[in-house]
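Team,

Forwarding the record for the chain on the shared tracking sheet. I've put the sequence and predicted structure together so nobody has to dig through attachments.
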Amino acid sequence: MNLAAATTEPPSASWTARLAGARATRRLVNTGFHVHAKHRMKRLAAMDPVEVQKRTLRGLVARARDTRFGRDHGFSAIATVDDFQRRVPVRTYETLWDDYLKANYPVFDDLTWPGRIPYLALTSGTTQGATKYIPVSREMVRSNRKAAQTMVAAHLTARPDSRLFEGRMFFLGGTTQLEEPAPGVRQGDLSGIAAIELSSLLRPYTFPPLDLALESDWDRKLALLAERSLSEPITLVSGVPSWLLMLFQRVLELSGKSTIGEVWPMLEMVVHGGVKFDPYEQAFRDVVGRSDVRLQETYPCSEGFIAYGDPQTGLLRLLVDHGIFYEFVSVSEYDPTAAPKARRWLGDVETGVDYVIVVSTCAGMWAHVIGDTIRFESLDPPLIRFTGRTKYTLSAFGEHLINEEIEAAIAAAASETRTSVRDWHVGPVFTGSLGYHQYVIEFNNRVEEPARFRDLLDEDLLRRNADYAAHRVAGVGMPAPGLILTRPGAFEAWMRRRGKLGGQNKVPRMDGSGALTRDLVAFVRESNLVEADVSPGAPPDS
């Protein structure tokens, strides 16, 4: 069912929206948010994150005590973190779906969270492509809103002269056109859920308007967004990095300007998230063209808003007081088919260790593995780095490469060759008794020596990973990887062909099976989108 009619603002809201959008009101609202920001950041500074997490868990358990999940796991007897960890096993999404959600889809009444779940955020397993239906409760809507407000508060505090609310904040997301699979239940893109839940009083401060946000054709939507945004006083723009670059390219083509900073002179912040940003950073700095525009990292996911980029340190600050309880399992001990030997939480976590992050949320996702890995750099305040995905590993031949290592090697090679990467993918090619890694990379500018880029990437990985080095021994190991450089727009065309274009869809970075890699390579070759092709070769001299 198309819900366009159900999401249109009522006529009575129009005069309040006009008042909210008046220049004098904008200045007043901007001042008010500055005051709120100071109070919020003071509360965060005085907060004991361990005690807050204890209270969060007790509150979640008490709230869900009478649900089916709560009864099955004896929530009424849980008083401590230890109690919870003894009674509630760590689960993947697939296990929770099979055990509690699948048989009742699309109506989740009192299953893992009290009441009916009003929204389901649709997302796909990055490599498997299977659709996941992530519950989004009313409490989770408020949790996400609080997290976004905290991120904004950090920016306003760091920049006292900010005029963020005197212009418009541009959210580049998927369509807000949601389906209604059952009465009182709507499903679709998470960004669409957020747009629909936005107060009419805040719409004058955001872009795009609801009618444009409802557009489901991504190519048409992107063209309209670029055209209409030219005349808007954009102060913030937010989205997945690859789609933001696509938007920026179209904006520059239409405007005739050389940088986004020229097009939107009020721009203060570019908010990015969803993928590791290192390979994109130089491209963003070049296209934005102004050093005063902050590149603001965030860590949102369908299960909840986890962290935001701390302006003081550049690290991600874990959000501990908005209805999510966190646990952590060492990557070295994690096995999705077995119970972990140890489950850490903020009370006993350690810095410098790579952890799989596990969440229990105010939408009924209990001890849920979201598929990401992080590392703590500080405990008070809790500051983390996003290090990759549990499914983003490459070990077809025993080489044990992780996402973080490949991201860093690509970024290092790009820096050395003065290039910037727009999108990339890598997977194994199985050929004879000895396979190799195949990289497919789309750059923002011309690469003069593709083979040198490949060798620099390979050399960096040899330094970073002993297992990779051991499997790259001359004469007996894998050859140096193959590298295909694509023409501009190749990944966009591939994602369109797969029906995964736009919104929150992200290019799959690593494919341990090689199936996606074969599909991508075949597509770019058949579509004449290959700019350069470096064959796999012998390892560099050691």
